[in-house]
């Protein structure tokens, strides 16, 4: 439940005194009021704010909200009356009515009408430079605080300002058009209720609030806006209270750090938790994931960037703890350098090995032939106190190497700290080299997704992964070379390039087609690995090749409004531009066989756009609620479906060709497809994700000066 989140944020903001004037923004926060909170179960028919107090009506009974709770009320909501006499012929039922500038307006099933000075109803046919309408199903009429008239109809939304109409359809950003009511807010804002959610219009932009993230039910029966701008939405299953809380980026970061520390840290590992009561964050229990190493690494990286930009001792302590946890994953296993996915106590509450029995593995292989039949999947540690999960994937490695390099550069101050990083990086890299560039499990066989070998790259099964895995392996070796200073890692990378063309494979580090091969987590793996590959590459020819590969990957994801991916691209493009300014791409030595190539590519890639406006928008609009709500945007008027041949249904983008905003889709993790219109996060309402979704791009973007605080 979300009852106290707004109060918590207000207290947090009051307790934080910035040293300098920081930019503020408004964070939408939803509180859900359902049966059991003083309201009856079931539908709320009407709602109104009377004397600053929300009054709700359900089945003839009235309730008021005071001092944080609902109680029976003696106040009553006045009965709505619409004109019924002398209606125009064929107008149908009156659905809405409002007074505007001394004149009465009505919306009906078959039209929009204004009462003339003679008392006759005259049909209104709104038109602007793009549209001309004869409105139908005009279920919403309202006058905003600036005196403009608004209506919601089957064709869309219209605004009358003076004597000029402005009409909005999906092409102008209107997400839905089955209206039920409307209410005016401050500063010219208007709220529309619909049969599938609520819509706020501010400065001609439409904010769509639907699904359990925002409402107890999508059927909006009524809504009202109080003097502060908080909207109270009566639905078929309760009330939603949505308020906009002014805050700074740093205050939001403090909220997510506290949330993560309070509910997501298990033995130093950071992971999603489990909710014993759906949607109730207070019912959490610490959980495990398939990728505790990657999630802990990304949280550690966020705290490392935070330490670099703020010098906060807490940030260093959290980065230190993350390093120790990730190193523990490597130290606990059967062979030096093999990182476990997860570590749990021997008496963990779930029978994890029984869940992955031989019988289960055999059954699972019937639908997934590459599922690995390994038992136990959670071997016991040598000291008998813990179990660790095997079959480690490339996701884990990408996270480990990404974090280790960042920690080494930004956090490690003492020789002891630097030695810890050198040891763990050398152990993992030596394990890969020793085992033919594969993660070798405790059964003596490669893990399913941990194969970076030349043989695999050249095989039928590895062809679609050769670009990404080749690039990742070269990145790991670059990080190892940078951190340890051992020449053998450069020599190994050279061997893989000269003998097996890993650098050529890396020119295509991200699959774009066919759609079956395009998975969003590969964006995460590729961009995190590009960070080590490009930052530590010394050869200008290779650096130019890798920058070209980065651009190809970026073009495929640049409109998904993923703050982390935008930040990674911006940081690496910036690094390349700095190198170009230093003159390292001299055509006399960089691809001298074609003296036009290096200058042309250097000029092309020195001009870049990380779309920092999208980074800022996403950081501001990431919800404070990290539960995995299911959100289906396939009904929206403002989206176009992806027409790519072979594309699965339900992929698309908004009228402006960008992904729908982050608070209008179900994603609360970094590695999700922004174009997936229908999505539910793993665990759904039974899990809460950690705050890294905001913390990592925020502090990383600040460190690389892509945004200001």
Search tags:
alpha+beta, 4-stranded antiparallel β-sheet, globular, 34% helix, 18 helices, Methylamine Dehydrogenase, Chain H, 709 residues, 33 strands
Major sheet details: 4 strands, antiparallel
Classify the oligomer.
Answer: single chain
The gyration radius over C-alpha positions equals 29 Å
Biggest sheet strand line-up = 1-20-19-18
Approximately how much beta-strand content do the residues carry?
15-25%
Class based on secondary structure composition and strand pairing: alpha+beta
Can you tell me the residue ranges where pLDDT is under 50 for at least 5 consecutive residues? 13-19
- H/I helix tally: 18
* CATH superfamily descriptor of the domain at 94-236: YVTN repeat-like/Quinoprotein amine dehydrogenase
- The CATH architecture designation of the domain at 94-236 is 7 Propeller
| Alpha carbon gap, first and last residue | 31 Å
State the shape: globular
CATH topology of the domain at 94-236: Methylamine Dehydrogenase, Chain H
Overall average residue pLDDT: 94
Percent of residues in helices? 25-40%
The count of DSSP E runs of length 2 or more, i.e. the number of strands, is 33
Question: Tell me, what is the CATH class of the domain at 94-236?
Answer: Mainly Beta
Structure description:
The protein is built from 18 helices and 33 strands. Among the domains are: 94-236, YVTN repeat-like/Quinoprotein amine dehydrogenase (Methylamine Dehydrogenase, Chain H), CATH 2.130.10; 466-558 and 562-606, no CATH class. The protein is of the alpha+beta class and 709 residues long. The strands form 11 sheets. A 4-stranded antiparallel sheet has the order 1-20-19-18. Strands 2-3-4-5 form a 4-stranded antiparallel sheet, with no helix packed on it. InterPro entries: WD40/YVTN_repeat-like_dom_sf.
């Amino acid at each position: 439940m979300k009852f106290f989140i707004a109060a918590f944020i207000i207290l947090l903001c009051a307790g934080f005194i910035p040293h300098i004037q920081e930019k503020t923004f408004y964070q939408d926060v939803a509180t859900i009021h359902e049966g059991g909170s003083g309201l009856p179960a079931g539908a709320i028919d009407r709602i109104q704010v009377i004397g600053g107090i929300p009054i709700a009506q359900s089945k003839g009974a009235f309730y008021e909200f005071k001092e944080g709770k609902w109680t029976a009320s003696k106040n009553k909501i006045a009965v709505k009356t619409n004109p019924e006499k002398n209606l125009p012929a064929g107008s149908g039922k009156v659905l809405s009515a409002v007074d505007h500038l001394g004149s009465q307006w009505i919306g009906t099933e078959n039209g929009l009408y204004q009462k003339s000075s003679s008392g006759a109803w005259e049909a209104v046919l709104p038109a602007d430079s793009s549209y001309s309408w004869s409105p139908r199903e005009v279920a919403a009429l309202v006058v905003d605080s600036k005196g403009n008239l608004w209506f919601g109809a089957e064709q869309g939304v219209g605004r009358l300002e003076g004597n000029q109409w402005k009409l909005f359809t999906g092409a102008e950003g209107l997400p839905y058009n089955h209206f039920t009511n409307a209410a005016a807010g401050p500063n010219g804002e208007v709220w529309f209720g619909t049969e599938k959610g609520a819509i706020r219009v501010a400065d001609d932009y439409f904010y769509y609030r639907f699904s359990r993230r925002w409402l107890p039910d999508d059927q909006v029966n009524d809504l009202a806006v109080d003097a502060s701008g908080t909207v109270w939405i009566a639905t078929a299953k309760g009330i939603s209270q949505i308020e906009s809380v002014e805050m700074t980026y740093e205050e939001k970061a403090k909220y997510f750090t506290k949330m993560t520390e309070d509910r997501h840290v298990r033995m130093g590992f950071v992971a999603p938790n489990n909710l014993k009561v759906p949607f109730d964050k207070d019912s959490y229990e610490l959980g495990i994931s398939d990728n505790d190493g990657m999630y802990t690494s990304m949280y550690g990286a966020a705290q490392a960037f935070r330490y670099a930009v703020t010098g906060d001792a807490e940030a260093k302590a959290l980065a230190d703890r993350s390093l120790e946890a990730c190193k523990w994953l490597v130290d606990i296993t059967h062979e030096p350098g093999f990182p476990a996915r997860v570590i749990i106590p021997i008496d963990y509450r779930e029978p994890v090995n029984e869940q992955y029995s031989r019988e289960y593995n055999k059954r699972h292989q019937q639908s997934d032939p590459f599922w690995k039949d390994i038992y136990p999947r959670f071997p016991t540690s040598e000291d008998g106190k813990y179990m660790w999960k095997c079959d480690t994937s490339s996701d884990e490695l990408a996270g480990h190497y990404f974090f280790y390099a960042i920690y080494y550069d930004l956090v490690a101050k003492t020789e002891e700290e630097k030695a810890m990083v050198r040891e763990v990086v050398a152990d993992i890299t030596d394990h890969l080299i020793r085992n033919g560039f594969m993660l070798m499990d405790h059964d003596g066989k490669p893990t399913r997704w941990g194969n970076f070998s030349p043989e695999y790259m050249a095989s039928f099964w590895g062809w679609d992964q050769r670009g990404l895995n080749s690039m990742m392996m070269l990145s790991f070796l670059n990080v190892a070379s940078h951190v340890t200073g051992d020449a053998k890692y450069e020599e190994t990378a050279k061997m893989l390039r000269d003998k097996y063309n890993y650098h050529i494979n890396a020119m295509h580090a991200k699959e774009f087609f066919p759609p079956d091969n395009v998975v969003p987590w590969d964006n995460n793996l590729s961009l995190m690995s590009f960070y080590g590959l490009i930052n530590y590459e010394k050869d200008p020819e290779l650096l130019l090749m890798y920058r070209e590969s980065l651009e190809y990957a970026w073009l495929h994801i640049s409109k998904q409004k993923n703050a982390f991916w935008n930040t990674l691209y911006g940081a690496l493009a910036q690094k390349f531009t700095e190198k170009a300014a230093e003159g390292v791409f001299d055509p006399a030595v960089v691809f001298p066989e074609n003296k036009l190539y290096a200058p042309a590519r250097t000029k092309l890639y020195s001009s870049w756009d990380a779309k920092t406006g999208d980074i800022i928008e996403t950081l501001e609009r990431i919800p404070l609620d990290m539960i995995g709500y299911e959100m289906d945007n396939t009904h929206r008027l403002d989206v176009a479906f992806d027409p790519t041949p072979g594309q699965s249904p339900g992929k698309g983008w908004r009228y402006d060709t960008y992904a729908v905003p982050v608070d209008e889709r179900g994603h609360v993790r970094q590695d999700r497809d922004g174009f997936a219109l229908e999505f539910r996060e793993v665990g759904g309402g039974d899990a809460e994700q950690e705050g890294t979704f905001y913390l990592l791009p925020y502090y990383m973007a600040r460190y690389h000066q892509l945004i200001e605080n």
